[in-house]
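[audit] Reproducing an earlier prediction to check determinism. Same input, same settings, fresh worker. If the tokens differ from the archived copy the diff job will pick it up downstream; this log only records the rerun itself.
[audit] input (119 residues):
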Amino acid sequence: QVQLVESGGGLVQAGGSLRLSCVASKRTFSIYRMAWFRQAPGKEREFVVRITWSSGTTYYTDSLKGLFTISRDNAKNTAYLQMNDLKPEDTAVYYCAAMSRFGTPYDYWGQGTQVTVSS
């Protein structure tokens, strides 16, 4: 069982930046991939970005390439999401998720952290 805890959300003005953190309760050798998703009010949850833990390979949703950056710190069992040039439409609850094995669904989820971007 892996527990994920997100932090770093908050209120920011348009054009500002935030860095979200996701700490895993277990050593990350038990995790194949981590990802960030977000869910805006009244909308479906959507994929943002993922990172394969061992290789560091990343994959971004097209609209956020160059704006958001995912990274990881093995020693801290932590994934980060650096978000730059934030826009009001980035307002959402951001969730991190972990996939324990390749090809399986994301089986662990954090509780979410609210990001609000004011215009």
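[audit] rerun output stored. Observation attached for the diff report: DSSP finds no helices and eleven strands in the chain.
[audit] end
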